[in-house]
Write a structure and sequence with these properties.
single chain; 270 residues; alpha/beta; Rossmann fold; 7 strands; binds nicotinamide-adenine-dinucleotide
Length: 270
């Protein structure tokens, strides 16, 4: 009989998992049997978006995971603060004895496409977006690398974006695209660094993924025009992304490292 819990006995950490795609990652890993620790600077961030709030089956994703009979921990922490993140990782290892999987998902952009054109985007916006996406990813990777090196095993997945590869027509969202391109490149350096320790490090690069936050933004930009560039002709879902995360978190991907995997319906490379 096929074991539907291939991650049973594994311990996972997912950042930015209070809503959106990160929540789908946390729930998917839990449904495959992993104990899951969630880090988010607001475990109730789903309340910002009605669609997100409507999909919740508990007060937080931590409660949702416990509801399916899986152990869960929640940390209200900012990934830009390395000290707090290190403490969270130490607590996870202290309570559960190990750390096998880390999904560095916390991130996102700030600002309008117009005000973030490459030639004019202001330093404040650049600093926030680089900290949230690149620095936060580096902090998370460095914190989890400590137990993973000791164990001589582990799976780290970072989150880039199609924006790290494609350039918007007007040169807008330059700070975000540059930060996500850096996340992808950092992933490859880390894969080289941690390969000898048996730790794989890969990056997923989502395309247009319909979440409570993004769905209205995509519609305002023009669904038909955006989807014209997507060979599969639809927006992605958090579940589409979670499938690839499941692969990269399981032994199916044991010989995959340093890869940047688009999850974008063909947007980037066709
Ligand atoms: N939605 C998309 O189409 C899309 C496309 C490409 C890449 N991505 C990337 O996927 C990831 C998730 O995207 P989403 O659309 O689900 O975002 P979202 O904004 O809906 O959710 C992000 C979550 O991360 C948390 N967070 C943000 N900054 C944090 C920080 N510094 N410390 C701790 N928690 C923090 C937020 O509170 C929120 O719960 C992000 O890295 C984003 O850049 C998303």
């Amino acid at each position: 009989m096929t074991d539907n819990l291939p991650l049973r006995g594994k311990v996972a950490l997912v950042t930015g998992a209070a809503r959106g795609i990160g929540r789908a990652y946390a729930l998917r890993l839990a449904k495959r049997g992993a104990d899951v620790a969630v880090v988010d600077f607001d475990l109730h961030s789903y309340k910002d978006y009605q669609l997100e709030a409507a999909s919740m089956r508990g007060d937080t994703v931590v409660d949702e995971i416990r509801e399916i009979g899986i152990r869960a921990l929640g940390f209200q922490a900012d990934v830009t603060d390395a000290t707090t993140l290190n403490e969270a990782v130490q607590q996870i290892v202290g309570e559960w004895g190990r750390l096998d999987i880390a999904i560095c998902n916390a991130g996102g952009g700030v600002g309008s496409p117009e005000e973030t054109r490459a030639s004019i985007v202001e330093k404040d916006l650049v600093d926030v977006v680089v900290a949230r996406n690149l620095t936060g990813t580096i902090h998370t990777c460095q914190a989890v690398a400590v137990p993973m090196k000791e164990q001589r095993s582990g799976k780290i997945v970072t989150v880039g974006s199609q924006a790290g590869h494609r350039i918007e027509d007007n040169g807008g969202y330059a700070h975000y695209g540059a930060a996500k391109a850096a996340v992808a490149k950092y992933t490859q350096y880390l894969a080289r660094d941690l390969g000898p320790f048996g730790v794989t490090v890969n990056c997923v690069a989502p395309g247009y993924i319909s979440t409570g936050r993004l769905a209205p933004i995509l519609s305002a930009m023009g669904d038909a025009q955006l989807l014209d560039d997507v060979p599969l002709g639809r927006y992605g879902t958090p579940e589409d992304c979670a499938g690839v995360i499941e692969f990269l978190s399981s032994d199916l991907s044991d010989y995959v490292t340093g890869a940047i995997i688009p999850v974008d319906g063909g947007l980037t490379y066709s």
